[in-house]
Amino acid sequence: MKFLILALCVVAASADPHWFMMPADEVALVQNTWNQVKTNEVDILYAIFKAYPDIQARFPMFAGKDLDSIKGTSGFALHASRIVSFFSQYISLLGSEGTQPAIKTMLNQMGQNHKNRGVPKQQFNEFETAVMSYMKAHVSFGPNVEKAWGDAFDKMYAVIFSNLDGQPMI
Ligand code: HEM
């Protein structure tokens, strides 16, 4: 019986190897800093495309177009709002035990959509670098804030990358 319980624990843990609850102080740092920039939707997407034109090139409606010309369009505003709202939702759900299943569901779905679009991990990593640079330039960003943001991305990418590898997180 003891062996069975142990075996079940090992299976449960291995289904979820990188999943973790972020500490409350880190959640507060991420939420407070994000709240300071989250209405700059167009600016954030612009910064991502500017730093990584290969990400822009993946969007059929933006590929090959001059970034400064599309920045003011409604299509650009719409997509910026989609990405930033998704991110805001993820960040608002962090930090409580009860919201972990909702986080997994939304990230599994997003990971699956982006796997279907063929987005590689390397571009997600570029996205993280661009968002981190944006945060550094717009809020007070000490080592503790950087660590908290790193953890928030790790948690998010654990689920997304699992989907890119063909395995939704259970
Ligand atoms: C890093 C590289 C990424 C690429 C190349 C990429 C690419 C795309 C593309 C091509 C679309 C479809 C746009 C359309 O024609 O409607 C899309 C949709 C979307 N993306 Fe991304 N994406 C990336 C990262 C992200 C990240 C990190 C997030 C969230 C934080 C995100 C959130 C969304 C959302 C919410 C949608 C709309 C819903 C959907 O169709 O899935 N994307 N993305």
Automatic annotation (TrEMBL):
It comes from Polypedilum vanderplanki. Belongs to the globin family. It comes from the Eukaryota. Residues 21-165 form the Globin domain. This is Globin. CDD domains: Mb-like (cd01040). Residues 1-15 form the signal peptide. InterPro entries: Erythrocruorin, Globin, Globin-like_sf, Globin/Proto, Mb-like_M. Keywords: Heme, Iron, Metal-binding, Oxygen transport, Signal, Transport. The keyword Zinc does not apply. SUPFAM superfamilies: Globin-like. Pfam families: Globin. One of its GO terms (cellular component) is hemoglobin complex. GO terms for molecular function: heme binding; metal ion binding; oxygen binding; oxygen carrier activity.
